[in-house]
């Protein structure tokens, strides 16, 4: 039984689907995290290796996940921004060991937060400071400093250090997200 | 991660704030202790793990401790000492088969050190040059103890002065020694054969036979011996050798070795020589009249930086396209290639702490750095495509990442020449005939002018003669004789067959009336009939125009017309005072029945 089954089961949201966007730079660990969260019986809906960007989608009982790399030079940006509207929660994954690209992750986060489909919604954001097991990794506190998370005032957010390969830290994050979605639903 | 301490702006506009800068400040370490130039920087996925590393051939502080450094992200991954100062670094694929991890080549002294997976793999040495026979002879004598070190020194110095074939390193080192060390040096080295080797000044890579991004490449070396060598990618044998009139310092290479390629070599004599696949010697030459400080090929244009603080654009045939002045001395140059947008531009690090980015003549962007940039390169680093790496005069390392949404636009540049000036006029091509004529004009200009003048005088003479003749025979409608100044003009009216012919006769003298004039018509009597062919003119009062009318009957019905001559005569004189020819119109009416 995957973590998600518990999440959706506890919420009692069997009827209505909750759409979760899982975003972050390429190589941050999104696929690894989602695979850990995925129940064994979940069908990977489509992995679309479209030119320029790829989207992974899958559904589990009552949650649908859309995962994509925020990579590339803008030409396909409007394609993925198209999914912002239907997202009800965001998981933003950061590679804590990629010091050089921390500025790029911040830039992408800022662009996301300023997008008209996200800006004025109280949508919960869960940050995974992933790859904490690596020697070069900075702490989750340092990651939140570098990304200036304290500036996010109008949305609930939470950051967890994680090791997606071992699955460490994922539970804590999912628990928090669960509370947030429930708060919105009730 | 260091605080952001540099800024950039589009050309000319006020320094832009952090928010609308095109660059993200990824890293700045003013104490990175890197001392190098652009030729010694290379970016490559050396381990084949998708994480691109930075290779630095470091001269060391004051050029004292040359080292090979490899960076991963902001930190040094490995460091190893080099036997001599590095001249250039390059990464290239040696062979087709997997794993396709690029090898690293570092040129230093007379050797190229090749590393695979960052482990030493091969050392290529430039071939020996023939030693000076006199020098050889001296050392042979020293070997047999027939010459003492002091004489040896004097003789070698003599050779050095003349220096047709330069001395070997061994002799040069010997000449530097103190007197007391000489004996030992001679004893130690006398039995070794003397070797003369040149050193590598520059290095580039050239695709072997495929144009692909990741195709196997040859190394191209420029040497102090004024030569260019192309090496085989796997065997490191010399595939081609070309000689230059001067020592190459910068190289630009395009094409494929097996198909067709072009080499451009900027040399110490201030010239840039261009060579093709089959040329053993330069095909074209650009004379800079200044020292080159950088050479970058942007698409088909060669951009050269000169020590007169300007960038020049040339075609691959050496035709100059443009010149852009820089606000300060150029310290280093390199290519910026943004593959996702197909943009190629030139980056120039200036002594005033600016890095300027140009697309042809257009300034795209200015980056202001805390210290003057002495080396820079742009490309994929770590996992980010458009990363700019700069090292500074003080040994600092600056890494900037181009924003994913950033677009370079032209025209934000400083006030320059108006765009109309750069517009090409549609001038038609010069024809062969035009060229021939121009050449002939240039060669035979004087003769042509003389012929023209002679013809002009002849024409004038003929005109004057005709005029005189007309006057003499009073063939003109204006009489110029002093006694009878007359003017005549005639009007023909009607459609035919009957016309009315009116002569207007005027006395143009100031006061004297004219009397005793006759008018006579001469005509073909088959064609025309006039009631009076000869009549008297009344007295002509000065100034008035007298209309003298007569009818003319056209007799022919064949549509023929003829001339009727009018003569004005003085009574008793046979020569007319004046005459006129009247061109009669064709009769359009029916002939008189
Ligand atoms: N050491 C370590 N490696 C991780 C971790 N999470 C992911 N990776 C590795 O990072 C690489 C990229 O992961 P992936 O999930 O494909 O990233 P995505 O591009 O965001 O989907 C893979 O080689 C993973 O094995 C982690 O927490 N620790
Ligand atoms: Mg993925």
From TrEMBL, chain A:
<dbReference type="GO" id="GO:0097499">
    <property type="term" value="P:protein localization to non-motile cilium"/>
</dbReference>
<dbReference type="GO" id="GO:0060271">
    <property type="term" value="P:cilium assembly"/>
</dbReference>
<dbReference type="GO" id="GO:0015630">
    <property type="term" value="C:microtubule cytoskeleton"/>
</dbReference>
<protein>
    <recommendedName>
        <fullName>ADP-ribosylation factor-like protein 6</fullName>
    </recommendedName>
</protein>
<keyword id="KW-0479">Metal-binding</keyword>
<dbReference type="GO" id="GO:0061512">
    <property type="term" value="P:protein localization to cilium"/>
</dbReference>
<dbReference type="GO" id="GO:0046872">
    <property type="term" value="F:metal ion binding"/>
</dbReference>
<dbReference type="GO" id="GO:0005525">
    <property type="term" value="F:GTP binding"/>
</dbReference>
<dbReference type="GO" id="GO:0016192">
    <property type="term" value="P:vesicle-mediated transport"/>
</dbReference>
<feature type="binding site">
    <location>
        <position position="31"/>
    </location>
    <ligand>
        <name>Mg(2+)</name>
    </ligand>
</feature>
<dbReference type="InterPro" id="IPR006689">
    <property type="entry name" value="Small_GTPase_ARF/SAR"/>
</dbReference>
<dbReference type="GO" id="GO:0008589">
    <property type="term" value="P:regulation of smoothened signaling pathway"/>
</dbReference>
<dbReference type="GO" id="GO:0005829">
    <property type="term" value="C:cytosol"/>
</dbReference>
<keyword id="KW-0460">Magnesium</keyword>
<dbReference type="GO" id="GO:0060170">
    <property type="term" value="C:ciliary membrane"/>
</dbReference>
<dbReference type="InterPro" id="IPR005225">
    <property type="entry name" value="Small_GTP-bd"/>
</dbReference>
<dbReference type="GO" id="GO:0016055">
    <property type="term" value="P:Wnt signaling pathway"/>
</dbReference>
<keyword id="KW-0449">Lipoprotein</keyword>
<keyword id="KW-0342">GTP-binding</keyword>
<keyword id="KW-0970">Cilium biogenesis/degradation</keyword>
<keyword id="KW-0547">Nucleotide-binding</keyword>
<dbReference type="GO" id="GO:0045444">
    <property type="term" value="P:fat cell differentiation"/>
</dbReference>
TrEMBL record, chain B:
<dbReference type="GO" id="GO:0007608">
    <property type="term" value="P:sensory perception of smell"/>
</dbReference>
<dbReference type="GO" id="GO:0045494">
    <property type="term" value="P:photoreceptor cell maintenance"/>
</dbReference>
<dbReference type="GO" id="GO:0045444">
    <property type="term" value="P:fat cell differentiation"/>
</dbReference>
<dbReference type="GO" id="GO:0061512">
    <property type="term" value="P:protein localization to cilium"/>
</dbReference>
<dbReference type="GO" id="GO:0007601">
    <property type="term" value="P:visual perception"/>
</dbReference>
<dbReference type="GO" id="GO:0034464">
    <property type="term" value="C:BBSome"/>
</dbReference>
<dbReference type="GO" id="GO:0060041">
    <property type="term" value="P:retina development in camera-type eye"/>
</dbReference>
<dbReference type="GO" id="GO:0034451">
    <property type="term" value="C:centriolar satellite"/>
</dbReference>
<dbReference type="InterPro" id="IPR011047">
    <property type="entry name" value="Quinoprotein_ADH-like_sf"/>
</dbReference>
<dbReference type="InterPro" id="IPR056419">
    <property type="entry name" value="GAE_BBS1"/>
</dbReference>
<dbReference type="GO" id="GO:0008594">
    <property type="term" value="P:photoreceptor cell morphogenesis"/>
</dbReference>
<dbReference type="GO" id="GO:0006629">
    <property type="term" value="P:lipid metabolic process"/>
</dbReference>
<dbReference type="GO" id="GO:0000226">
    <property type="term" value="P:microtubule cytoskeleton organization"/>
</dbReference>
<protein>
    <submittedName>
        <fullName>Bardet-Biedl syndrome 1</fullName>
    </submittedName>
</protein>
<dbReference type="GO" id="GO:0051216">
    <property type="term" value="P:cartilage development"/>
</dbReference>
<dbReference type="GO" id="GO:0048854">
    <property type="term" value="P:brain morphogenesis"/>
</dbReference>
<dbReference type="GO" id="GO:0021591">
    <property type="term" value="P:ventricular system development"/>
</dbReference>
<dbReference type="GO" id="GO:0001764">
    <property type="term" value="P:neuron migration"/>
</dbReference>
<dbReference type="GO" id="GO:0031514">
    <property type="term" value="C:motile cilium"/>
</dbReference>
<feature type="domain" description="Bardet-Biedl syndrome 1 N-terminal">
    <location>
        <begin position="23"/>
        <end position="276"/>
    </location>
</feature>
<dbReference type="InterPro" id="IPR032728">
    <property type="entry name" value="BBS1_N"/>
</dbReference>
<dbReference type="GO" id="GO:0043001">
    <property type="term" value="P:Golgi to plasma membrane protein transport"/>
</dbReference>
């Amino acid at each position: 039984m995957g973590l998600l089954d518990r999440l959706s089961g506890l919420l009692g949201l069997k009827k209505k689907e909750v759409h979760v966007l899982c975003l972050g730079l390429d190589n941050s660990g999104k696929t690894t995290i989602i695979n850990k969260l995925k129940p064994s019986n979940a069908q990977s809906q489509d992995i679309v290796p479209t030119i320029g960007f790829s989207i992974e989608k899958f559904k589990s009982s009552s949650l649908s996940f859309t995962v994509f790399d925020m990579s590339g030079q803008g030409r396909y940006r409007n394609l993925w921004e198209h999914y912002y509207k239907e997202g009800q929660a965001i998981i933003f994954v950061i590679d804590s060991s990629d010091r050089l690209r921390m500025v790029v992750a911040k830039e992408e986060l800022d662009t996301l937060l300023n997008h008209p489909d996200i800006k004025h919604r109280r949508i919960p954001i869960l940050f995974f400071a992933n790859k904490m097991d690596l020697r070069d990794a900075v702490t989750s506190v340092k990651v939140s400093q570098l990304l200036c998370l304290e500036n996010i005032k109008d949305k609930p957010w939470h950051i967890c250090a994680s090791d997606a390969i071992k699955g460490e830290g994922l539970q804590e994050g999912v628990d928090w997200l669960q509370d947030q979605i429930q708060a919105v639903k009730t | 991660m260091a605080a952001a301490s540099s800024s950039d702006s589009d050309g000319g506009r006020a320094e832009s704030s952090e928010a609308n800068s095109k660059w993200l400040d990824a890293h700045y370490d003013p104490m990175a202790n890197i001392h190098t130039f652009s030729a010694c920087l290379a970016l490559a996925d050396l381990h084949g793990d998708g994480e691109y590393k930075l290779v630095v051939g470091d001269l060391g502080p004051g050029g004292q401790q040359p080292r090979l450094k490899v960076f991963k992200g902001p930190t040094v991954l490995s460091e190893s000492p080099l036997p001599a100062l590095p001249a250039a670094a390059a990464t290239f694929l040696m062979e087709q088969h997997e794993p396709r991890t690029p090898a690293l080549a570092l040129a230093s002294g007379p050797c190229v050190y090749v590393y695979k997976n960052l482990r030493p793999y091969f050392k290529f040495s430039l071939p020996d040059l023939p030693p000076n026979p006199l020098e050889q002879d001296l050392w042979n004598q020293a070997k047999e103890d027939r010459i003492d070190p002091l004489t040896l020194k004097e003789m070698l110095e003599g050779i050095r002065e003349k220096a047709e074939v330069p001395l070997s390193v061994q002799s040069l080192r010997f000449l530097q020694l103190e007197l007391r060390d000489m004996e030992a040096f001679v004893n130690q080295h006398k039995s070794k054969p003397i070797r003369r080797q040149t050193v590598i000044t520059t290095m580039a890579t050239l695709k072997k036979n495929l144009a692909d991004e990741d195709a196997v490449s040859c190394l191209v070396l420029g040497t102090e011996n004024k030569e260019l060598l192309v090496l085989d990618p796997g065997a490191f044998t010399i595939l081609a050798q070309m000689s230059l009139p001067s020592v190459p310092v910068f190289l630009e290479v395009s094409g494929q070795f097996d198909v067709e390629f072009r080499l451009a070599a900027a040399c110490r004599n201030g010239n840039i020589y261009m060579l093709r696949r089959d040329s053993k010697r330069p095909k074209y030459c650009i004379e800079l009249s200044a020292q080159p400080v950088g050479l970058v090929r942007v698409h088909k244009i060669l951009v050269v930086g000169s020590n007169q603080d300007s960038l020049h654009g040339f075609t691959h045939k050496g035709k100059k396209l443009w010149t852009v002045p820089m606000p300060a001395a150029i310290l280093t140059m390199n290519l910026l290639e943004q593959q996702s947008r197909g943009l190629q531009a030139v980056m120039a690090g200036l002594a005033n702490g600016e890095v300027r980015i140009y697309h042809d003549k257009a300034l795209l962007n200015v980056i202001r750095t805390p210290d003057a940039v002495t080396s820079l390169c742009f490309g994929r680093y770590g996992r980010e495509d458009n990363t700019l790496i700069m090292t500074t005069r003080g040994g600092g390392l600056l890494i900037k990442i181009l924003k994913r949404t950033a677009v370079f636009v032209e025209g934000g540049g400083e006030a320059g020449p108006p765009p109309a000036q750069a517009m090409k006029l549609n001038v038609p091509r010069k024809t062969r005939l035009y060229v021939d004529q121009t050449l002939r004009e240039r060669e035979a200009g004087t003769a042509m002018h003389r012929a023209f003048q002679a013809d002009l005088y002849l024409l004038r003479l003929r005109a004057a003669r005709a005029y005189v003749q007309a006057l003499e025979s009073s063939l003109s409608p204006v009489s110029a004789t002093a006694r009878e100044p007359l003017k005549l003009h005639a009007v023909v009216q009607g459609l035919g067959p009957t016309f009315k012919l009116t002569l207007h006769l005027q006395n143009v003298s100031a006061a004297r009336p004219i009397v005793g004039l006759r008018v006579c018509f001469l005509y073909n009597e088959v064609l025309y009939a006039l009631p009076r062919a000869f009549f008297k003119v009344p007295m002509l009062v000065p100034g008035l125009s007298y209309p003298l009318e007569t009818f003319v009957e056209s007799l022919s019905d064949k549509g023929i017309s003829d001339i009727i001559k009018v003569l004005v005569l003085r009574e008793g004189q046979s020569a007319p005072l004046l005459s006129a020819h009247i061109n009669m119109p064709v009769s359009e009416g029916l002939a008189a029945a």
